[in-house]
Amino acid sequence: MHIDSTIRRSIGALFATLALGACALPASATTILFVGNSFTYGEPAGAAPLVQNYKPGSVTDLNGSNIGGVPALFKALTVEAGLNYDVSLETVPGVGVDYHYNNKLAVINKPFDKVLLQSYSTLDAAHPGNPDTLTKYADLLAQAFHAQNPNVEVMLTSTWSRADLTYKTASPWYGQSIYQMALDVRKGYDAADAASNLIDGVIPVGETWNRAIAAGVADANPYDGIGAGQVDLWAPDNYHASVYGYYLEALTIYGSVTGLDPRAFGAGDLVARDLGISGTMALALQQFAADQLAAEQVPEPGMAWMFASLGGLMVLARRRQRGTAAA
Question: What stretches of the chain show up as alpha helix (H) in DSSP?
């Protein structure tokens, strides 16, 4: 992740909010596109499709498949925070970014303010762990989006370790630590980021999962049962995510895109409530997202603290304002 892009997002969020307070005028919506596969659209894989079916009317599914998914979770978080985002998604199961470039470019090639690209879970289905296809096509997509809007911010979403490939299935990660696949996937996304001057950083979803597992809040091996008091980040196929995993993904994306602190939502977060996540668990997952984002390359500690504190205060102020208006 680039330091400059992190600073730019934080400063942009800060000054946009200050400008709103000074002028008391509605902000124009920031347009954002999510491009990905089942890890983006919230495949339930044997569980109730709570995330996949979450508020599809709040987002625009460019494929017309009526999916809400993680983009709708992100949208709901931004609404809760008083932000104005116009969210679109284009998702196809089991594909990488090369598929979207080769088959969906006519659908997605529009001017957006922000674009998030998420590729196949192993980087390359035919060559697991190889980032070459991701690197090539992420840059081609970034070029296309910059041709539509020279100021677009393109980011890559790095995904999590698959328990099935770690514990059960022959793969480069079989028998390794549950943390390793997420780290290797992140290296691949970092390589794609470094190879293109049109990509603005990597969103560390997989490493946020690693934090939840390392802390003992999330179970490390769903094949031997879920520990007492722990949650399972994976869906029943031990490949896709559960509501806990997708919520953690949405929190990490929210903090990366807006520059605001996901801990500001607190135990009463409406999205967590909708997903059946307890207030105590919501707080824990928000903390892991905040910790991982803080561990990325960020402004010097004093500046980072200022942005995080102001972000939290802004959310609280908006909540109070809405409460007063409703009273």
Answer: 3-23, 38-41, 69-80, 97-103, 105-108, 132-148, 163-167, 180-195, 205-214, 243-258, 270-274, 279-295, 301-326
| Nearest residue to 264 (alpha-carbon basis) of 80, 74, 83, 29 | 80
Phi-psi region of 117 (alpha: psi -120 to 50; beta: other; left: phi over 0): beta
In angstroms, rounded to a whole number, what is the distance separating the alpha carbons of residues 147 and 139? Answer: 12
pLDDT band at 107 (very low <50, low <70, confident <90, very high): very high
How far apart, in Å, do the first and last CA atoms of the chain sit?
A: 43
Task: Tell me the C-alpha distance between 82 and 316, whole Å.
Answer: 10
Concatenating the DSSP letter of every residue in 42-59 gives: T--TTS--TTTTS-GGGS
Q: Are 61 and 46 in contact (CB under 8 A)?
A: no
Strand order in the sheet with 85-91: 60-61, 85-91, 30-36, 114-117, 153-158, 202-204
Q: What pLDDT score does 17 carry?
A: 44
* Residue 76, token pair as written in the block: 């709901």
Count of all residues that appear for the chain in the document? 327
Residue 15 burial by Cβ neighbours in a 10 Å radius (0-12, 13-18, 19+): exposed
Residue 297 — pLDDT band, cuts 50, 70, 90?
A: low
Inter-residue contact 199 to 157 (CB < 8 Å): no
Q: Whole-angstrom Cα distance, residue 43 to residue 91?
A: 11
- Which of the 8 DSSP states describes residue 231? B
Rounded Cα distance between 221 and 187, Å, is 23
